[in-house]
Design brief:
Blueprint (H helix, E strand, L loop, with lengths): L2 H25 L6 E4 L5 H12 L3 E6 L5 H10 L3 E6 L5 H15 L4 E4 L15 H29 L2 E5 L12 H21 L5 E7 L16 H9 L9 H12 L10 E4 L16 H4 L20
Helix pairs in contact: 2-8, 4-5, 5-6
């Protein structure tokens, strides 16, 4: 074998070793990070908690009494991940602070806040929308995001951490019979973008993920608020002609929480199958390939167990 060929082989082997190392880095892109996931035991929250743990994060799984928080923590531990439970109402000062305290007492730091907890209690025109439902929306979707962020910020300053908050496509466009819900998600977007500008000097990033129709209890007529017609129209309003999976949303949350997104702050990432980019009902034209649901990488057992209401 000539010296030239030997040198070429050594160079190729060196590149392959670098590629293997890069794959390992991506596979553990949250290794050593500590994350709070509010509403972390069902739907998008469950997918995020489990994906974060799979990618090496230590996860504080939050939920209300009655939510499958302990079950999700157990499932993460059984899969080789690390997680603890924080069963509390993040729409209260005490609950929000308990989440942060749990992270510090369990893992010594806080790097990531995923403000995911939210409710979607009812669809009705504004003159018929019950005030108690409006108060539920404000309590969880607004106060829950505000209070957990306020409690987490001092610790995120120490780690140059980040916040990913869950908005919605309907926080960006109109939503007939859902004005109150839509308004809370519009508030999340405005709040997080302002926070991104305010907190950048401390090295803290803040971004919004705005899902469209995702296959959770919210878009299943037999389980959530949407009726059959509403759910059908929501799906056909996507360019891809299907619901997204919770893990497809969690993938984007994970990216924004990772160092791969180190120059991303104040952004709004729509994960909506093209619904906000389209008019009419483009889903009717979506072909089989567009509608194909990707195979997940985490085992979701509580995908449709979310609560639309605090009752």
């Amino acid at each position: 074998m000539t010296d030239g060929i030997k040198e070429l082989r050594q160079e190729v082997h060196g590149v392959l070793r670098q590629m293997d190392g890069a794959k390992q880095d991506v596979a553990g892109m949250l290794k050593g990070k500590v994350a709070i996931v509010t509403g972390g035991s069902t739907g998008i929250g469950e997918a995020t908690s489990k994906l974060f743990a799979k990618q090496g994060a230590n996860v504080v799984v939050n939920g209300l009494p009655g939510d499958p928080v302990d079950a999700v923590v157990g499932e993460i531990l059984d899969a080789g991940g690390i997680a603890v439970a924080a069963i509390c109402d993040v729409g209260t000062v005490v609950g929000a602070e308990r989440c942060v305290t749990t992270a510090l007492e369990s893992f010594g730091q806080l790097d990531i806040l995923v403000a995911n907890a939210g409710v979607f209690p009812e669809l009705a025109e504004i003159q018929d929308f019950p005030l108690e439902r409006f108060n539920e929306l404000m309590h969880t979707n607004v106060e829950g995001v505000y209070l957990t962020t306020r409690a987490a910020i001092p610790e995120l300053h120490k780690t140059n951490g980040c916040i990913v908050a869950l908005g919605s496509e309907v926080g960006l466009v109109g939503f007939a019979q859902g004005a109150s819900y839509s308004a809370t998600k519009g508030w999340v977007t405005a709040f997080i973008r302002s926070l991104a500008a305010e907190q950048a000097k401390y090295g803290v990033r803040a971004n919004v993920v705005a899902p469209g129709p995702i296959d959770t209890e919210m878009t299943r007529p037999s389980k959530g608020t949407m009726g059959v017609v509403d759910a059908f129209m929501a799906v056909k309003g996507t360019a891809l002609g299907r619901r997204g999976t919770p893990e497809e949303v969690a993938n984007v949350i994970m990216f924004l929480a990772s160092d791969l997104a180190s120059f991303v702050t104040g952004a709004i990432y729509t994960v909506d199958g093209g619904s906000t980019a389209s008019q009419g009902l483009p889903g009717f034209e979506a072909g089989r390939d567009a509608k194909r649901v990707p195979k997940g990488t985490v085992d979701l057992k509580h995908q449709h167990e979310g609560r639309g209401t605090l009752r």
